[in-house]
Amino acid sequence: MRAVLLGPPGAGKGTQAIRLVKKYGVPQISTGDIFRKNIKEGTELGKKAQEYMNAGGLVPDELVVDLVKDRLMQEDCANGYLLDGFPRTIAQAEQLDEFLGELGTKLDAVINFEVGYDTLMERLTGRRLCKACGASYHIKNFPPKTEGICDKCGGELIQRADDTAETAMKRIEVYEESTAPLIEYYTKSGVLKNFDAEKDPKEVFEDIVRECGE
Ligand code: AP5
Ligand code: MG
């Protein structure tokens, strides 16, 4: 399974990736997670990425593409992967196609998450993450048993720096402008599969598996 998870911020890409990793036994490659890890560790890449991310913009293509290429060359990607949050621009998609062509492979599916604006805003501003283990919650949809505390490890729940209403709005705007054109790009290459991601996570997952194969 070589797939891209495509969709606006808060569409549920990360939520479905956890289930799909288990189902298909391939790694999730989230460029957002890679950048956040670099920011936490204070690396040069993290320092460069941080200002773009906190402003709700995209990190420049040249900082993203080589990083993904290196990751795809690692052994655990030999039988497939789930690209979560990459590509995000036409230029990134073209460079990915070129690279996969060189490797003699191609994408099996681009899983497109369709969600309306109000739902996205509600999901983003209500999301909480465990500072210790990274588990994801939502204050209304999936609240922890004790407010502010992770069910799994007892860690503190925090809000992502870019999940404020103002930055979330900006991210959705940037998605519309730079990332939504990929829907047409991948429709043309015949790999796009659309999913109603307003549904419950379990139903979204079942729809994906039905379409993409058991
Ligand atoms: P990234 O980390 O990829 O963020 P994003 O695309 O904005 O997406 P999110 O992670 O916010 O949402 P998601 O779709 O994963 O939703 P989730 O499952 O968590 O990127 C962050 C930043 O990094 C970018 O803004 C950019 O600056 C930079 N970056 C990353 N990649 C880049 C690239 N390729 N090029 C340039 N820059 C790049 O769900 C959200 C919430 O909703 C959760 O609380 C969850 O519990 C809830 N929820 C999920 N599904 C459902 C459901 N079905 N029903 C009800 N609630 C649900
Ligand atoms: Mg995510």
Outline:
With 214 residues, the chain is α/β, with parallel strands linked by helices. The chain has a domain at 2-26 and 79-116 and 170-212: Rossmann fold (3-Layer(aba) Sandwich).
* Proportion of residues in β-strands: 5-15%
Estimate the helix proportion, in percent. 40-55%
Arithmetic mean of pLDDT? 96
Hetero groups in this structure are:
BIS(adenosine)-5'-pentaphosphate, magnesium ion
Structural class: alpha/beta
Shape: globular
What is the second-level CATH architecture of the domain at 2-26 and 79-116 and 170-212? 3-Layer(aba) Sandwich
Tell me the CATH superfamily of the domain at 2-26 and 79-116 and 170-212. Answer: P-loop containing nucleotide triphosphate hydrolases
N-to-C series of helices and strands = EHEHHHEHEHEEEHHEH
As laid out across the biggest beta sheet, the strand order is 2-3-1-4-8
Whole-number radius of gyration? 17 Å
Number of strand segments:
8
Low-pLDDT sequence parts: none
Query: Tally the helices: what do you get?
Result: 9
CATH topology label of the domain at 2-26 and 79-116 and 170-212: Rossmann fold
- CATH level-1 class of the domain at 2-26 and 79-116 and 170-212: Alpha Beta
Q: Biggest β-sheet, characterized?
A: 5 strands, parallel
Describe the structure.
By secondary structure, the protein is an alpha/beta fold. 49% of the residues lie in helices and 15% in strands. The strands form 2 sheets. The chain has a 5-stranded parallel sheet, sandwiched between helices. Strands 6-5-7 form a 3-stranded antiparallel sheet. The longest helix is centred in the last third of the chain and has 15 residues, at 165-179. The mean pLDDT is 96. The structure holds BIS(adenosine)-5'-pentaphosphate (AP5) and magnesium ion. The site of BIS(adenosine)-5'-pentaphosphate has 35 residues, from helix 1, helix 2, helix 3, helix 6 and strand 6.
